[in-house]
Specification:
377 residues; alpha/beta; seven-stranded mixed beta sheet; two-stranded antiparallel sheet; 13 helices; 19% strand; disordered N terminus; binds nicotinamide-adenine-dinucleotide; binds zinc ion
Length: 377
C-alpha cells in the first residue's frame, strides 16, 4: 500500500496513465504493469516478493541510475545486489556464475526473489539464474530498455549465449510480474531506442497491419520519445506478445512467428561478434532479408519490400547485411538455429504484410539468392 493514500485526482491520473495486462498461463499467470514513474510508486513491487530474501541483478550502467529506486521499495527485506558488466559479450556462463556466487555467498534460500533490473541482457541472465538456482526461485522483471519492455521481459525465455550460437543455453521460466516504468526510457541512448523499435515494427509485420500503419504515422513521435506514443507502442506490443505466449508457451507453433528476422539476425550477431551489432539492428536487417525472400517466393510485392525497408530505415535501423560476413558463413551460422528440426531449417517469412508464417517451403538457391541480394551494392 502507498505510505500516504493518493488524493482522488492523483488516483484518477494514475489510472489513466497506468495499464495492466495479464499473461494468461493458468496458475502461472502474471501481470504486466505499464506506466510512467512506476518505480516511484511504493506499492508496486512488494506484493510480488515471496519471502525475505531478494537479490537484485543489474549492470554497471543501469545500477547507478535506478538501483536505489528499487532498493527503497524493499526496506525491511534481506536485500542484496549484483552488478554485472555491461554488454552482450558478457551474456555467457561466466557472468551467470557471478549471480550464483552472489546467491550462495549471501545464503539465499529457495524462497528468494531475483529482480532483473536492466535491458534484455540482464533480464535473460537473471531469468536463467532464477530458473536454475535451487531448481527455481521467484523472478520479477523490471525492464529498462524499449527492447526489453516490448519483448524480452515478457514470455519467459531466459538464457545465455554460447561462443558458437546465440541464446543456445536457456530455459523457459516465467516471472511473477513485469514492471515497465516508461520513465526509465528517458536515459536510454537513441541507438538503443531504435533497436527496440525493430521489435515493435516486428509485431506489426507478423500480425497487425493496422499497428504497422500506426507506427508509420507516429515514427517521429516515437523517435522523440513522446510519452503517449511510447506507452501505446509498448502496450500493443506486450498485448500481442502476451496473446501469442498464452497460446503457445513453449514454442511448438505460433510463438515461432515472433522470430521474424531472427534466424538471419542471430547469424549476424554471432558472426560479427556479440555486441558489435545490437540485437534490434541485426533483427531489422534480418526482417529485410525475410521480406526479400518472401518476395522471391511471390508472396509479397517488391513495393512491399521497399516499404518494409523504408520504415526500418526511418526508425534509424540498418537494412543491409554486413559485407564482411560471407554467404557461406551466413549459411553455416544459420544452420545452428533453434528452428532447425530434423536437419531442415524452417524460416519465418511473410505470406503478406501483417501475416507471418513458418515454412520450409523454399529452395536452397532461393535462400542463397536472398543473402546475396542483401549486401550493400
Ligand atoms: N528473452 C527473450 O524473449 C528475448 C527477446 C528479445 C531479445 N532478447 C535478448 O535481449 C538482449 C537485448 O536486449 P537490450 O536491447 O535491452 O540490450 P541490453 O540489455 O544490452 O541493453 C542495451 C544497453 O542499454 C543500457 N541500458 C539499459 N537500460 C537503460 C536505461 N534506462 N538508460 C540508459 N541505458 C540503459 C544497457 O546497460 C546496455 O548498455 C539480447 O541478448 C537478446 O537476445 C531476449
Ligand atoms: Zn528479438
Amino acid at each position: 500500500m502507498p505510505e500516504q493514500p493518493a488524493t482522488q485526482p492523483e488516483q484518477q491520473n494514475r489510472e489513466q496513465t497506468q495499464k495492466q495486462l495479464i499473461v494468461d498461463l493458468g496458475e502461472r499467470s502474471y501481470p504486466i504493469f505499464i506506466g510512467d514513474k512506476l518505480l516511484d510508486q511504493k506499492d508496486i513491487l512488494l506484493p510480488y516478493i515471496a519471502g525475505n530474501n531478494v537479490l537484485i541483478v543489474s549492470n554497471e550502467t543501469v545500477a547507478p541510475l535506478y538501483l536505489d529506486k528499487v532498493r527503497n521499495q524493499l526496506s525491511g527485506k534481506h536485500l542484496e545486489s549484483v552488478v554485472l558488466p555491461d554488454g552482450e559479450e558478457y551474456k555467457n556462463i561466466e557472468t551467470l556464475n557471478t549471480i550464483y556466487d552472489a546467491l550462495l555467498s549471501h545464503h539465499m534460500d529457495r524462497n528468494t526473489t531475483i529482480i532483473a533490473l536492466g535491458g534484455g541482457v540482464v533480464g535473460d541472465m537473471a531469468g536463467f539464474a532464477a530458473a536454475t538456482y535451487q531448481r527455481g526461485v521467484h523472478l520479477i522483471q523490471i525492464p529498462t530498455t524499449l527492447l526489453s519492455q516490448v519483448d524480452s521481459s515478457v514470455g519467459g525465455k531466459t538464457g545465455v549465449n554460447h561462443r558458437l550460437g546465440k541464446n543456445m543455453i536457456g530455459a523457459f521460466y516465467q516471472p511473477r510480474a513485469v514492471i515497465i516504468d516508461t520513465g526509465t526510457l528517458e536515459t536510454l541512448p537513441d541507438r538503443e531506442l531504435s533497436s527496440g523499435l525493430a521489435e515493435v515494427i516486428k509485431y506489426g509485420l507478423i500480425k497487425d497491419r493496422d499497428f504497422l500503419n500506426w507506427i508509420k504515422t507516429n515514427i517521429n513521435q516515437l523517435l522523440n520519445k513522446e510519452r503517449s506514443a511510447l506507452a501505446y507502442a509498448i502496450e500493443i506490443s506486450c498485448k500481442t506478445k502476451a496473446e501469442v505466449v498464452a497460446t503457445d508457451e513453449k514454442e511448438s507453433g505460433q510463438r515461432a512467428l515472433l522470430n521474424l528476422g531472427h534466424t538471419f539476425g542471430h547469424a549476424i550477431e554471432t558472426g560479427m561478434g556479440y555486441g558489435k551489432w545490437l540485437h534490434g539492428e541485426a533483427v531489422a536487417t534480418g526482417m529485410c532479408m525475410a521480406a526479400r525472400m518472401s518476395a522471391l517466393l511471390g508472396w509479397i510485392s517488391p513495393a512491399e519490400v521497399d516499404d518494409t525497408i523504408s520504415i526500418l530505415k526511418q526508425a534509424g535501423l540498418p537494412t543491409e547485411a554486413p559485407a564482411t560476413l560471407s554467404t557461406e558463413r551466413f549459411l553455416e551460422l544459420m544452420s545452428v538455429d533453434k528452428k532447425v528440426l530434423n536437419g531442415v531449417l524452417r524460416l519465418v517469412l511473410l505470406k503478406e504484410i501483417g501475416q507471418a508464417v513458418i515454412t520450409d517451403d523454399y529452395t536452397q538457391d532461393q535462400l542463397l539468392e536472398t543473402i546475396q541480394n542483401s549486401y550493400p551494392e
